[in-house]
Amino acid sequence: MAIRSLSGAFCAAIVLSSAAFAQGYPERQITMVVPFAAGGPTDTVARLVGEKMSTDLGRQIIIENVGGAGGTLGAARVAQADPDGYTLLLHHIGMATSASLYRSLPYDTLEAFEYVGLVTEVPMVMVARRDFEPADFPAFIAYVKENAGTVSMANAGIGAASHLCGMLFQSAIETQFVTVPYRGTGPAMTDLLGGQVDFMCDQTTNTSQQIRGGTVKAYAVTTPERLELFPDLPTVAEEGLPQMEVSIWHGIYAPKGTPEEVTERLSAALQVALADPGVARSMADLGTAPSPAEDATPAALKNQLETEIARWQPVIESAGVYAD
Amino acid sequence: MDFMSNLALGFSVASTMENLAFCLIGALLGTLIGVLPGIGATATIAMLLPITFQLEPVSSLIMLAGIYYGAQYGGSTTAILINMPGESSSAVTAIDGYQMARQGRAGAALAVAAIGSFFAGTVATFLVAIFAPPLTTIALKFGSAEYFSLLVLGLIMSVALAHGSVLKALAMVVLGLLLGMVGNDVYEGTPRFTMGITAFADGLNFVALAVGVFGIAEILRNLENEHDRAVVTSHVGRLWPSRTDFRAMIAPILRGTGLGAVLGILPGGGAILASFASYTVEKRLSKNPKEFGHGAIAGVAGPESANNAGAQTSFIPLLTLGIPANPVMALMIGAMIIQGIVPGPNVAIEQPGLFWGVIASMWIGNLMLVILNLPLIGLWVKLLTVPYFILFPIIMAMCAIGVYSVNSNIYDLYAVAFFGLLGYVMGKLRFEPAPLLLGFVLGPLLEEHLRRAMILSRGDPMTFVTRPISLTLLVLACIVLVLVLVPAVRRNRAEVFTESEV
Known about the structure:
The structure holds two protein chains of two kinds.
Chain A: H1 2-18, E1 30-34, H2 41-57, E2 61-65, H3 72-79, E3 87-91, H4 94-101, E4 113-129, H5 137-146, E5 152-155, H6 161-173, E6 178-181, H7 185-193, E7 199-203, H8 204-212, E8 216-221, E9 247-255, H9 260-275, H10 277-285, H11 298-319
Parallel strand pairs in A: 1-2, 1-3, 5-6, 5-7
Antiparallel strand pairs in A: 3-9, 4-7, 4-8, 4-9
Chain B: H1 2-14, H2 17-35, H3 41-52, H4 57-82, H5 91-102, H6 106-141, H7 144-158, H8 166-180, E1 183-184, E2 191-192, H9 206-224, H10 243-265, H11 270-285, H12 298-313, H13 315-321, H14 327-338, H15 347-350, H16 352-384, H17 388-407, H18 410-428, H19 433-456, H20 463-466, H21 468-485, H22 487-501
Antiparallel strand pairs in B: 1-2
Helix pairs in contact in B: 1-16, 2-4, 2-16, 3-4, 3-14, 4-5, 4-6, 4-12, 4-14, 4-16, 5-6, 5-12, 6-10, 6-12, 6-13, 6-16, 7-19, 7-21, 8-19, 9-17, 9-18, 9-19, 10-11, 10-12, 11-12, 17-18
């Protein structure tokens, strides 16, 4: 009893000092649902940011991994949670694409959530097995077009970042070739390293170390600007494929009906976390960067989600691929 | 010599007081969660990840690795004592280990498991140190065609794994294959057997299935018959194996270690495949195959060595390629990334202290485990001699928590209940759970690799015979098949089965 009241007093003190304007929120620990397995890139982002947000909020944010069905199970869990600010969702671009990839979802993507802010936008890189013939990106595109019948592209399963990038690539160069789905990035990368498949487009979180180690060949990055990590890699826009620009953006959401002062408070904590040099350093190691403060806002995330749903719908529909 | 100086560096890192302490904590914690059924290493490491933020990268990896191999030891303990494999890879140990325990030889079974694991762990640690980079290239040579052929070989060999009616065993394999198909098809996203429940989109949870058919079913069986309280053996027997036991276990341990070390490198369930494969090999080679299923010491020694060797060598693809061989390794990658180390080919060059320190700590951890566990076996057993009315609800609750913690999915709990009942009914009808599990684990892999190999070859089935490794494996499979079908051998087999029916 003594311990409980002591820790209660301790926590109350922190809450009073740092969050007086949010009317006492948060009063207990917060659960942040990550709709993917522990240890994956999204989980890593959530744990990095969650820890720093906890410090600012004065309450622990615990990560709960609710994996399955391309992230839609975790999103559904949060959509149905109490809108009190104690259940949050950290999801990536899949939030927007699953709206088209799944013909029936247990929630309405645009109506079921409140927004906290963007967390990071992870660039993607087109990589190929080390001994793949083409020397640069234009040669690569020409080669793929010419050998559409024999080349193969790996992806980490329907709806995965690598699958999305692959769909964009096919529509950008107007060529159909064989794609080989895997259960996750790990086995796909293994087969790429072993030369079983020819190329793949994946997040820097999965590819940067292999590129640095010289075990895969890198052709281009999918961001508007070149990466600090690989200044020699051209962007897809430089090479004439601006429609292939894509990043795996991550955002934090709350259930619909969560009070505005709560999402504002969370957004403020997110901005503090993203400004932390330690977080920036860890993200840099992964080949990404924290979103700037003006993007870590409810309005920016809402806008991003709406734009991306509209962008991906025709791509997915013309590919005719559905996850259910 | 490079290798010696590397290892010396590793030991100097691993033997600092702090790292020794974390190694001990990890090993102890791992054993504890391994002993508690249902709570696996994956869940524990996931829960402990936040704590490791505060530690040095080396210390945190050493502790997490300790949990992983500690759980392998602990998992065998429950498999032997209460027929409840704490880890999927100890499912095979339960077959003969539990029978040994029922014969009052639990002590010997536990000691054999510990000694086999330690030996395999030691050898595998050195293998990791010597061969990490070159071995990686073997793993990379395995494309889908090779995996498919390996799985075919494994399934054919597993025909010998079953005891009792062949027809029933086949039925169980097929049921396992069907259960393994639940969920969305990886290639097209078509839902199969999900009954419209999205929670089943990624398939049934392996832990839920294993805990159900092995664990819950066993508890139900024991509740039914109050007089035959076999679930916990009151009598552990003498701990140290007899001279005969020692002679019987040397060869299986050596074979298991070799098999496990090779299979562990392959991404995807290496340790599980290793223990199944080792059991099959031992049964084939044994002079008294009828002993298997009735407390054969080789049936404990081989698979236990194999799964520990496999657990150890599965660090090779992680440390050298940054590619996880199983979910626990995926969590280790997460832990490394959080510490600012991106796993991959550069870790050994940029962070030699960390790389070799973790390797050296594996051996130290294995030594700690054997020293700790032999005397602790008594304690683990005491933990399990708690009266039934207390023990059963605790085990049930632990199973539920453990299964739920994997994915926070309520349907996994329904699955535990369902498969518990199914396992109970199966037991009544004398169907074996092991072939079911095998079908469930290997079926989806078989399908995935078959289809991927065919996609890559543009629909040409010749890919399986034009690739040398794949061809070799298929030829081996044919030889095994012929051996099984040759009349003399078949008669032999029939005898084995009639014996074990009694």
